[in-house]
Give the backbone structure.
Amino acid sequence: MERSVRSVDRAAKWTREQIQERVRGLGRWFHNIDLGGVKTAPDHFLGDYPAFKWKSFAHAIPADLTGKTVLDIGCNAGFYSLEMKRRGAARVLGIDSDDDYLAQARFAAEVSGADIEFRNVSVYDVGSLGERFDLVLFMGVLYHLRHPLLALDLLHEHVVGQTLVFQSMQRGSAEVTPLQEDYPFSEKRIFDEVGYPRLHFVEHSYSHDPTNWWVPNRACAEAMLRSAGFEIVNHPEPEVYICRRREKADGAPGAVYPGRRAGMKGEQA
Ligand SMILES: C[S@@+](CC[C@H](N)C(=O)[O-])C[C@H]1O[C@@H](n2cnc3c(N)ncnc32)[C@H](O)[C@@H]1O
C-alpha cells in the first residue's frame, strides 16, 4: 500500500517561498521533484524526469516494502529513495559520490518528512557499508563508470541481498544474438553480429557529458548482469531490469581473470 511520507509538522516548517529559495541555492537539479508545489528541475532536457521513467516500471517493484531495507546507489537528489520510503521501506540508504546532489537529497527528504539516510560513498566502496540490503537500486550509474563490470561484481559480493533494480542507457541494436558457450579462434564473423554484446567506449564526451564512459547495447547490458551473478527476472521497460541475486556455486571460478583461468582445464589453463 502506497503511503505519504509527508509529516504535517515538517511540511509546515517550510513556506513555498523558502522552499523556492533553497531549491535555487542548491544548484542545478537533475531530479525533478515536487517539493510542496515547487518543481526542482522543471526544464529537464528529458522532460519530467525521472517521474516518467518511474511510471514505466513502478509496477514491477513490490507496492508494499514494509520491513525491507533499500540501498539507492547513485541516488542523486533522492527521487527513487523517496519513492521507496513511500512504499514503507523500514530503512533507505542513498549513496552518491557527489556532495552537491546529496545536499539536494537531504533537503528533499527533509521537506517531504522522510527519514532517509544519505551518505557520500562511491559504488566502488560499497564493501565499506558492511551490510546487505533486500533491494538495491543501481539506476543510471553504470555508463558513468570507468569500471562498470567491477561495480556489478562489487554489488554482488557486498550489498545485494535479494533483488537488484538496474537501469542503463543503451545504444546500438536492441537485438540479442543467441551465442554458443565457446567459439574457435578462427571464428570472426560472430563479432560483427548486431546482437553481439557490445560496450561502446566514449573517449571524450557523449551528450555534452564527459562522465559518460561506456554505453552497452541491450545484449551487453543483459550479459554483464548475468556474468556478475544476477538472474534477470523481469524487464518492464527497455532500459530497466529486475534481477535476483544468484549464489555462485561452490568452487565456481570467480569473475576476475585469475579466477576464470583457474577454471580452465589442462593445457589451456
Ligand atoms: C544519471 S544520474 C542517475 C541518478 C538516479 N539514480 C536516477 O536514475 O535518476 C547518475 C548519478 O550517479 C552518481 N555517480 C556517478 N559516479 C558514481 C560513483 N562512482 N559512485 C556513486 N555514485 C556515482 C552521480 O553523482 C549521479 O548522481
Observations:
- The radius of gyration is 20 Å.
- Residues 30, 50, 73-74, 76, 96-98, 101, 122-124, 139-141, 144-145, 167 surround S-adenosylmethionine (CB under 6 Å).
- The longest strand covers residues 160-167.
- The domain at 8-176+189-247 is CATH 3.40.50.150 (Rossmann fold).
